[in-house]
Structures are given as C-alpha cells and as structure tokens.
Write a structure and sequence with these properties.
Blueprint (H helix, E strand, L loop, with lengths): L1 H11 L10 E10 L10 E4 L5 E3 L5 E7 L5 E5 L6 E4 L8 E6 L3 H19 L5 E4 L1 H6 L5 H8 L4 E2 L7 E5 L2 E4 L1 E4 L2 E2 L15 E7 L4 E6 H10 L11
Parallel strand pairs: 1-7, 12-15
Antiparallel strand pairs: 1-4, 2-3, 2-5, 5-6, 8-14, 9-10, 10-11, 12-13, 14-15
Length: 237
Amino acid sequence: MILWLLGGIAGAGMPHDLGAQEPTFIRGRVLDRETRVPVAGAFVGLTRSDSGVLTDSLGVFTLGLLRDFDYALTVESLGYRTMEVVLNPTAPDEFTTILLPPDPVAIQGLTVLVDRFERRRRTYFGSVRVIDQDRLLNGGPGTAYDLLQRSVPFARPCLRANEDLCMIRRGREQVVRVCIDERPAFAGARELEGFDSRELYLVELYDWGSQVRVYSRWYVDRMLSEGRSLKPLSFGC
C-alpha cells in the first residue's frame, strides 16, 4: 500500500505522456497571392514532417497537431512556390489565411503538361473519360481503388484473381488494365488501395474503364521538374 501511494505521488508530479495529450486544430485556407482564388489540393503539413492534409475545392484545410509543437507549417501546390509559415501561438483560436505565391515557370510547365494530356487523348479512337481535380477533391474520402470501383461500370473483383478488377464484356470477364504513373500496376488494381483518391492529380478511363491511367501529384510534380514527356498510348504503361 505504501509503495502504491508513493508511486501515485511520484506520478502526479511527472509531465503527461505526449501521446496522452489532446490534439489541437489549425483551421484556415490557402489562396493564390495574386488573384485571391482558392488553391484546391494544396498540401499543408508540419515542417520537417511528412504528415499533412490537402485543401478542399475552396482552399480550406483543418490540420491536427499537439499543443507542445510549434506552428511551423509547409504549404506546397503544383504551380506555386513552396512556402514555410510560422503561425502565432493563438492560431488554434483563429482562422488562418495563407497567401501562396505562384511560380510563373511552374504554371507555364503545368499548362503545357495539361495540353499534352489532352492532345494524347485526342489520338485515341475509343471512348475516354477524365476525372479531374475538382471531382477528385469533391469525391470525399476513400482510396483510389474505391474511386475506380465507383467509376468503372460493372467493375468487380475478378473470380480467378481477387487482386484485380474485372468487367463483363460480350459475356466474358475482362481484367481492367491499370497504369499508375506510367507503369503497370504490378500488384493489380488492389495496388490503388495505397493511394488516397484526393492525392491524385488525374485519372483517365479508356473504353468505359477497360484501361485506367492514374497519375499522382508526386509524379506530375516530378515530370515538371525533370521535363519528362508522356508516352504514346500505343506504348502501353
């Protein structure tokens, strides 16, 4: 009993475990510094950390963190300069507006890349459907695999290979071919479960979904920085 009491007294004077602390939330929005237009899909996270959130179609974000952390944030978005922001300690009680400076060179490169996507789609003679940024950001939470199941008519797990998705065409089961960042999905369509649908930049559905091309924001940013070009559709993934 005495040892138990001593332990309780000692524990009362010790600082609380960080894991037991309740998180606080930083709420705000990201706007284009020049036009004041909301920047949808911008990444907002703690500096020196890979964790963060994406802004919605109105540029709004809610980021949870522990009160003992400083409020140093990093904001990134395609077509803009990466920005580091140190907020005041009163930030949890305020609504923060972050004005992100555009990068003219990056914007020009992104415009060229979008034109290349459109030109490549025009060379295809079948049906093509595009899921763009607005739909990806407004589609709600979920994985890219969930998005694919909603977007491809009659898609279902294949009978012989459950990791793939299949669709019935002309009375036969046909595997949905999935390309992720210009490469085949080696683990099948289930590989898309590792992607949040809101982290994608673009999804292209060819021939009612018999072929799906998925592009992550990370890959598009890499294409812009390295000057990569798109493969012709005839080359495959």
